[in-house]
Design goal:
It is built from 3 helices and 7 strands. By secondary structure, the protein is an alpha+beta fold. The protein is globular. The termini are far apart. The model has no long low-confidence stretch (mean pLDDT 84).
Length: 144
């Protein structure tokens, strides 16, 4: 007997968006465009974008930050791989933690899951994001 494969359950995730190098708005738009055109991620809603001062590493340009809601049925490992690919396509290179970056996409929360992936160096994912509560540049756009 052939059992048909059931469609994976779609869920809603919140992503934080940020950039402080080059054309910051275009960098964010390019990364989101890549996600929609090259994966199972669909953008559901986006916040306004805000210019914010850097945190943690203060000697760097101001950021443009925002948030968006996306829907996907991707498993967490494929999700983080796709997000890291989108960042790389926009020109993000490894650098100092919390330092300047072309684009930064972080998964803030997943409406149906909590997880902690550390299986691939540089591609770890903890949901809900462990520092969401201390970052106004995340909370303000997310509140929209």
């Amino acid at each position: 007997m052939n059992i048909p494969e059931l469609p994976k359950q779609r869920r809603i995730l919140a992503l934080a968006l940020g950039s402080n190098i080059g054309d910051r708005v275009a960098n964010i738009e390019g990364a989101l465009s890549y996600l929609e055109s090259n994966s199972d991620i669909r953008i559901v809603d986006t916040s306004f974008l805000y210019e914010t001062r850097p945190m943690y590493v203060l000697d760097q340009p101001k950021f443009i930050n925002g948030a968006c809601l996306v829907s996907t049925a991707m498993d967490p490992q494929n999700l983080i791989n796709t997000i890291k690919d989108a960042e790389s396509r926009q020109g993000r290179l490894p650098g100092i933690r919390n330092g300047p970056r072309v684009v930064d996409l972080d998964v803030l929360f997943d409406d149906s899951n909590a997880y902690n992936l550390n299986s691939v160096p540089g591609r770890s994912l903890t949901v809900p994001h462990p520092k969401i509560h201390e970052r106004e540049f995340v909370l303000r756009p997310l509140a929209e």
